[in-house]
């Protein structure tokens, strides 16, 4: 079987390698790709720019020659696909170095042409030192500009993963960085308060975020010197555009392949097959579904590309045992001062998707509290009320947040209810975890809330105003301006605090507030609420409270 793959890097090379492993000599696999690089770790490029990774070669998984030797698939670089003739089963292409017109026949075709960064047609867009980041050549250009000197300030346009990683790494190089985003928050897909926490941390590390604001143009003499937005002008020496990507599918115009309505993203089924039974697509040029909602959820990420390409190859080889069930929108990021991670639906997304959902936010130790480098996790779990199935996880902290996210991925993928975590035998040792695992603590808190044994929310969500009484119930005071009552001393009505008063309980993590709520309800307090996550998560409580 002659199999042609158009596009290298993540999906193309993964499909090629898996096809050869599944089919051996029965598959004649050829990969044609426009760039000179194949199979490189694009996710590592910001860290190469920031000198965390010193050697670019470590990011290059394979050269065309080594890939062919390893897998048996032929790789031809510098080839641009220009047209598809489905009836003749031919891809027309051009050698970009020689200008030669070429044709490639196939029995099965895999389209893995990926996507390219969006570069908006704005005044000044062609000035020097305005960059996008997609491949090693882009990284080298940014790195060279910084090394040449004169780059003291940078504006990052876009608050997604690449933009935030670039802000972190440029800051490490001494470049003062700021972020501009049209959205109300950075970190798309996260709940607003989780994103706000990250924004506050970035500000504390000298990286301001300008939100609800869009770029209208760039100014400078030869090189960019100023960015103009709808609200302000910002001086800069460099701009990194990280405002999304566009699928490389223009060459398929007129081919009759179906695109998702309103997009240029190829529409595929669970086997990554298009509306042509002999043509498949995987990676950033193809649509995938959301595992939970079943709706389209375009996810241009290397991890998704690899999963989809592997399943695509097995479908072609006839060895597939299941179809692609969809993505969860899993994400994990290292930011200055905090790591963040998520999977599934946040409470905002769950409600927007029509779920009757409950959520809880807790703050706990990431390892034994007596261990020297103990830090905190703030974790949010979201579950559907009727089925109690876990829908989503969000977490932030200085530790290994990915372990919380990956438990969530596993649980959601297996359809676990929130009660399943009660007796899970999680790993424990003081350097690694708390004796009750952080995920189990969060799950038990959500159980309590769903069963009516915990009432509360974050400080902002509770809409605390002047009618409320704020009570500090930490073992030691956390906010000196508030009335403080040690939770252990609550053995009846509290002096000066009527039982019918609307009360918000505050402590460092939220645990003491929960215990205080339980006690106070025994003594007739009917409207008492836990400020979930404590002052660690509700960072605004650490500022002056004036309500």
SSE arrangement:
Elements: E1 2-6, H1 9-23, E2 28-33, E3 38-40, H2 45-49, E4 60-62, H3 64-71, E5 74-77, E6 79-85, E7 90-95, E8 101-105, E9 108-111, E10 115-117, E11 130-132, H4 136-147, E12 153-157, H5 161-172, E13 176-180, H6 192-204, E14 209-210, E15 215-219, E16 226-229, E17 233-235, E18 238-241, E19 245-247, E20 279-281, H7 302-317, E21 331-335, E22 338-344, H8 347-352, E23 357-365, E24 376-384, E25 390-397, H9 402-413, H10 438-450, E26 456-457, E27 468-472, E28 483-484, E29 502-506, H11 511-522, E30 528-531, H12 534-537
Helix pairs in contact: 1-7
State the helix count: 12
Q: From the alpha-carbon coordinates, what is the Rg to the nearest angstrom? A: 26 Å
CATH topology of the largest domain, by name, is FAD/NAD(P)-binding domain
Spatial sequence of strands, sheet with the most strands: 5-2-1-9-20
The geometry reads as globular
For the record, the count of structural domains works out to 4
CATH architecture of the largest domain: 3-Layer(bba) Sandwich
Which range best describes the helical content: under 10%, 10-25%, 25-40%, 40-55%, 55-70% or over 70%?
A: 10-25%
Low-confidence stretches: none
Q: What is the H level of CATH, i.e. the homologous superfamily of the largest domain? A: FAD/NAD(P)-binding domain
Task: Determine the N-to-C terminus distance.
Answer: 72 Å
Measured by DSSP, the beta-strand proportion falls in 25-35%
Number of strands: 30
The major β-sheet equals: 5 strands, parallel
Name the CATH class of the largest domain: Alpha Beta
User: pLDDT average, as an integer?
Assistant: 95
The assigned structural class equals alpha/beta
